[in-house]
Amino acid sequence: MHAFENLDVFGGVVSLDFANTVDGRATEQPVEYLHTYADLAAWSAYMGMIDDATAERLGRLDGGASLDQALSLREAIFQVFRAIGRGEPAPVAELDEVRLRYAEAVAAARLSPGDDGTFGWRFEGDDPDRAWWPIAVDAVRLLTGGPLDRIKVCAAPAGCVGLFLDTSKNRSRRWCTMDGCGVDAKVKRQATRRRTAR
C-alpha cells in the first residue's frame, strides 16, 4: 500500500492539496502526513510532480532543511488561501513567504515547451528543494491567474478546514469530500432534526 493511500486528494490543484497534508487542522488530533523529507519526496511523486525514480533518489538525501522550507511554504499557502476562501485579506507575511519560495523555484528552473505548445517551468537534477519547487509555482499561478472566487474552505463543523477549488457549475460545493465531511454534516443535521422533533 502506498504511504498516501489514505490521504484524500480533493484540493483540485497541487498547492491546495499540499496545504491539506495536515488533515483535520482544527481538531484536537490533526493528522500530519509529512514527517520526513522522504515523505515529502514520496508525496511529490504521488502527485505527479516528480517521477518515482527521482523521488527515490531524493528520498535518500539529507533533506531536513528542505523539509523545513517546504513545511513553511505549506503553512503560508494554507493561511493565504484560507483567508481568500473566507473572503478575508491575505496575510502579508505569508504572501511574502510564498513569493520568496516561488522566486527560489523559478531561479532553479528552465522554460521549455510542453506537449500543448505552451511554455512552462521545468525542473531537473537532484536538489532536495526540487520536491517542493513545483508547489510554489502552482501557488503563484493560482494567486495570479485564479479562479480565486472558487477557492473554498470545508464547511464541516468538526474542524476539517480543508481547502479546495469548487468546480461545480453553481458553486454549491461546501465540503472537502461528500463521502467524508459531507456525510458527517448530513448525519449531524439529521440527529439535530430528530432531537428537535421529539
Automatic annotation (TrEMBL):
Gene3D superfamilies cross-referenced by the UniProt entry: Jann2411-like domain
Residue span(s) of domain Zinc finger CGNR: 150-194
Pfam families per the UniProt record, alphabetical: ABATE, zf-CGNR
InterPro entries xref list: ABATE, ABATE_dom_sf, Znf_CGNR
Name of the protein this chain belongs to: ABATE domain-containing protein
Organism encoding this protein: Paractinoplanes pyxinae
